[in-house]
Amino acid sequence: xxxxxxxxxxxxxxxxxxxxxxxxxxxxxxxxxxxxxxxxxxxxxxxxxxxxxxxxxxxxxxxxxxxxxxxxxxxxxxxxxxxxxxxxxxxxxxxxxxxxxxxxxxxxxxxxxxxxxxxxxxxx
Amino acid sequence: xxxxxxxxxxxxxxxxxxxxxxxxxxxxxxxxxxxxxxxxxxxxxxxxxxxxxxxxxxxxxxxxxxxxxxxxxxxxxxxxxxxxxxxxxxxxxxxxxxxxxxxxxxxxxxxxxxxxxxxxxxxxxxxxxxxxxxxxxxxxxxxxxxxxxxxxxxxxxxxxxxxxxxxxxxxxxxxxxxxxxxxxxxxxxxxxxxxxxxxxxxxxxxxxxxxxxxxxxxxxxxxxxxxxxxxxxxxxxxxxxxxxxxxxxxxxxxxxxxxxxxxxxxxxxxxxxxxxxxxxxxxxxxxxxxxxxxxxxxxxxxxxxxxxxxxxxxxxxxxxxxxxxxxxxxxxxxxxxxxxxxxxxxxxxxxxxxxxxxxxxxxxxxxxxxxxxxxxxxxxxxxxxxxxxxxxxxxxxxxxxxxxxxxxxxxxxxxxxxxxxxxxxxxxxxxxxxxxxxxxxxxxxxxxxxxxxxxxxxxxxxxxxxxxxxxxxxxxxxxxxxxxxxxxxxxxxxxxxxxxxxxxxxxxxxxxxxxxxxxxxxxxxxxxxxxxxxxxx
Lengths: 124, 537
Prior knowledge:
Chain A is α/β, with parallel strands linked by helices. Chain A has four helices and five strands. Chain A has one domain: Transcription Regulator spoIIAA (2-Layer Sandwich). The chains are: A alpha/beta, B alpha+beta.
């Protein structure tokens, strides 16, 4: 069951990893967009959005995620979703987000995929 | 062409080229704010002013909102007042500190930008005005492009969202039917309803009368207690059994704040709530079906046990012709009969009828069978045997269960029959002289009373051609479609006398045939059991 929204972040090189917990609605979506926006100015190229603890996303929350994708497209960056619940994955698929963003099973997989692309950097 | 003219022309061309270059960046702006910043950049590059301010006024508003409030160095000071109402035609207003350009946009909104300068921009005022007008036109067309793109995106988003709502509705319907019994369909439906309607929170309450039996909140821990501020709210409910399921959604979200739920939201919530209702009903019916299936399996097992208890084949008793039958009215009946040869050459004849049918009756029959066999082997007197049976059956049965039984011991050589009836219907003893004697000495039915009840026995002797008919009340009480009883149609005694010349097997077959002919298609309401023993020499 989704609880009140919380967010944690981690920066690895030029990649921002955002892990959310709870309902991604207006509040949650704005918090994610705000966090990403703050890091874009610091040279963040890619974003990994770990939704392991978020099982419910509404369309307002999704509109913020779309903005992040658009922003990343401007700079050639990538958004990677990870740890998706089946229902959330289907939702993102129907909304057409996987045309512009990627999905990986785990954060490690996402980092690896971004590393192959040459823009992700593991912290040492 | 003069040198001045050439310079002016070159400058204009350069500015137009600059505008064309900027078009790409401007049309890719994601938001109006980005758009304003990009536009300010173009102006800055073109005129290198001290500062650029870009203002925007939405359609229907009287307030100008800054899209770009000057650069950091300038400190974004107060702007010179301009009172002109923007028109579809670009208005360029010279100010002491620069120039202000205003224009109404194609959708009714308006924009204004200030070019703050400390000197003339190019020294060619006409060229500057032409350039500023071009910039205004450029702003308008790019803004129009931005709005078109925004509307297209909103349309695609809206269509996808509708598709998502439909899909989620179907998926939720499937998922709630697949949930394990311990999982709550109302919880899943609440989550989906909140997400699909963009509700901030929701709650399901299950009430039995005024008693709150269950409450589910989404998000978990959301404060939706009475008194919580709700700006918009919808609800739906249904009654299942004695319980009312109330679904509530609160505060429909938008990017601009809370708005009212619309008709689609009502439809979605209603549809999801109906799915929960259907799911609960299906669960109930499924549980009932499983219970029925389990009972049927139990009945099959019980029937199998009883089949083993009832004699598959009656023993051969020299000098006697013997036949029996048991036709249960349900898959597991409550009648029992047997013919058990004893170690001393005698033979026990048993006929019993348990009050009730089904598994409880079968279990009691099984107990009777076990105790009877044990006591018969012990060789105790018949009346003591029946008395002990009464005690053990009383212990083994519930208050509403008892057994009527007739137990007899036949000594084949002499034709002596010692019998005790425990509340059973009389056994008919057919005499050679064409009379029928009733054997009914005994006492109360087995298991009826706890007390150590004394039973009476009786002894009779049958000669060649004489016999005894043991039966249960399913024979005389067999009814036809009009509920007339077989006994009133053909008294069993008469049937016995009329068919006494038949072999035991023929007699039983004839009796069953006669009962069937009488009852016709009427359902069999009770077990039919009979044991017929005739002395043949």
